[in-house]
Amino acid sequence: MADIIQLLPDHVANQIAAGEVVQRPASVVKELLENAIDAGSSSVKLIIKDAGKTLIQVVDDGCGMSVTDARLSFERHATSKIKSADDLFNLHTKGFRGEALASIAAIAHVELKSRQEQEETGTHIKIEGSEVVSQEVVVTPKGTSILVKNLFYNIPARRNFLKSNPVETRHIIDEFHRVSLAHPNVRFSMFHNGSEVFQLPESNFRQRIVNIFGNKTNEKLVPVDESTEVVTMSGFVGKPEFAKKTRGEQFFFVNNRFIKSAYLNHAVSSAFEGLLKDGAHASYFLNLKVDPQTIDINIHPTKTEIKFDDEHTIYAILRSAIKHSLGQFNIAPVLDFERNANLDTPYQQHKTTASAPAVDVDRSFNPFASDDSKSNSASYRPKKEQSAGWESLYVGLEPKGTNGDIAIDANNFETDPEHVSMFQNASQETGAATYQLHRKYVLSSIKSGMLVIDQHRAHQRILYEEFLKQITVKEGVSQQLLFPLALNFSVDEIKILVELKEQLEHTGFVFSKLEGETLEITGVPTSATESGVSIILEQLISDVENEVPDSSFSQTDMLAKSLAKSLSIKTGQSLTKMEQEHLVNSLFACKEPSTTPDNRLTFVTMTVDELDKKFM
Question: How confident is the model at residue 412 (pLDDT cuts 50, 70, 90)?
Fold first, then answer.
């Protein structure tokens, strides 16, 4: 039998490796930015076009590369970071496997320009699909400039799997945030399609956070600082009152490397236990310094997951450090059994003596005396004239009903005929037409048996079709606020709301200001409350960031879904009989009453035969 196992060609092996390292344009941005940091750069510039699909360029002023190093950098597993297996547990740099540039060069057109400080000229290399097209001497500034063009040009299937430009841009910005937050001592700038997105000067950690997420972030931060033999922690957590429904502003950095850790995230959540509303997530920006020999970074291709030798100790230290910071800055309540501040003597009364209270007693008062004697002898009696005339408050409200109950004239009410008919039907029926089960399901009887409706899903379908109609017909109903509502978002979030402003106005929102980092609202949809506006918009921004569609119709559909999800009746909410019947009637007035906007069942039916079988 002939041999069937063969060695893969280098270009095929590189493309396979690229599938692990380069998942989307943001993966390329991450690798190139980390290489610039490893080169000791003090200034890094990121330039992208078409969300990185057409161009990704990173320019730094680092140490640069020699002619030989520039050529070897594109070979697989060529690295200057490690020389033996022991070096894997003593890493102080970002990249170390030496496969990033080789993987990127296998699926894109790459141009590299690099010069060392002591050299007069640099090197210019062009590579297309792992093949070196040209290498020549060039005059270039100190440092390295690398261009990645036409990503996935030779793997069209991978390119087709990329999301829309706004979604891919969002992922690139996330990677930019992670690298720039980890290195506040480095200047960063970012440009997209010729326009400036970020300009971050060299600063401290707190100022870097404010420069990225807006000036209003400064008042939300609570410092965390703890130093032990196991780990040194520093950074900030957000105040509980500024917690959001989304997990956007949550960053862990271990030895200046961004990581994801559900275990450490749980430690932060437990520290905020009792301070956050249900479903809210606190923000945090935490730096952890540990001995490199106590962690393993080489467990995931993207190096965003690491393994700690002693996770339990770090968990406990992190939790207690955050609790201490929240208590120290009077964010969390503190129990002190030694003294009560309410019993302290005011400063202006500190040296004065206490005076005995005066007591006035009517010694001639006799509770058993007759009314005449009371009126003659009592010099101390209540003044009834103050309450005289109280009967006038009830003039015109005499009972008209036969049983002494107050009768209400229904002709004096101007109400929607649909609601009036539902009220009359509900009052005329001797038995309940609907029943709410566990504040989650609404039961209703039908000819063939029983109908079980999920109240949250049903209301979601109702609101979805209402919002879709309002946006399409442009006839949203708004309720005006007594005072304008001012909200603060980051610059990126405001840009998203600006794009959706017209459609939001069709649903009932009225904006008086929408610029910079401030949003001012004077009107909201009739189904929304003033206190829930921030939650609605945060959920909408999160939905847009994760799945922004290309066409306007799909964007309208997404907007209607997001608003319906935020404003629909939640599980656990008690409904009156009238609300239950209105929910049932409105559901079956929809075009697609059987499913939610994301194709989940809104109700199920159970026939009498099926019930009979349960008793057999």
Answer: very low
Contact 184, 192 (CB under 8 A): no
What per-residue confidence (pLDDT) applies to 234?
Answer: 92
- Average pLDDT score, the chain: 78
HEC secondary structure over 486-507: EEECCHHHHHHHHHCHHHHHHH
Quick count: other Cβ atoms within 10 Å of Cβ 337?
Answer: 5
- Angle (CA) 593-597-599 rounded to 5° is 80
- Encode 517-526: b = buried (16+ Cβ within 10 Å), e = exposed: bebebbbbbe
| CATH superfamily, with its number, for domain 435-603 | MutL, C-terminal domain, regulatory subdomain (3.30.1370.100)
Residues whose CB falls within 8 Å of the CB of residue 152, separated by 6 or more in sequence, listed in order: 107, 108, 158, 159, 162
Torsion of CA 387, 392, 393, 395, to 10 degrees: 160
CA distance linking residue 335 with residue 320, whole number of Å: 16
- Token couple for 52: 């990185």
* Tokens standing for residue 319: 């939790």
pTM value? 0.66
pLDDT at position 430, please? 33
CA-closest candidate to residue 526, choices 567, 498, 557, 485: 567
Per CATH, the number for 212-328 is 3.30.230.10
Say if residue 158 is exposed, middle or buried (CB neighbours under 10 Å; 0-12, 13-18, 19+). middle
What pLDDT, on the 0 to 100 scale, is given for residue 539? 78
In the structure encoding, which two tokens stand for residue 162, read together?
Answer: 């990329």
Q: Quick one: average pLDDT of 211-236?
A: 88
Q: Token pair of 501, please?
A: 């402003």
How far are the Cα atoms of 150, 233, 464, 557 from residue 469, in angstroms, in the given order? 41, 52, 9, 10
CATH number of 10-200: 3.30.565.10
Q: What is the CA radius of gyration of the chain?
A: 34
- Rounded CA-CA distance 431/441 in Å is 19
pLDDT band with cut points at 50, 70 and 90 for residue 405: very low
Q: Give the angle subtended at the CA of 328 by the CAs of 322 and 331, to the nearest 5°.
A: 75
Across the range 379-396, mean pLDDT stands at 53
**Interval 214-230 mean pLDDT:** 87
Q: Pairing state of beta strands 131-138 and 143-149? A: unpaired
Contacts 24+ apart (CB under 8 A), 81-88: 81/38, 88/296, 88/297, 88/298
Cα-based torsion angle of the residue sequence 461, 466, 469, 474 in order, rounded to the nearest 10 degrees? -150
Q: What percent of the chain has pLDDT above 90?
A: 16
**pLDDT above 50 (res 14):** yes
pLDDT of residue 466: 85
Ordered by start, the domain boundaries in the chain are: 10-200, 212-328, 435-603
The single-letter DSSP state of residue 84 is S
Element (H, E) at 137: strand 131-138
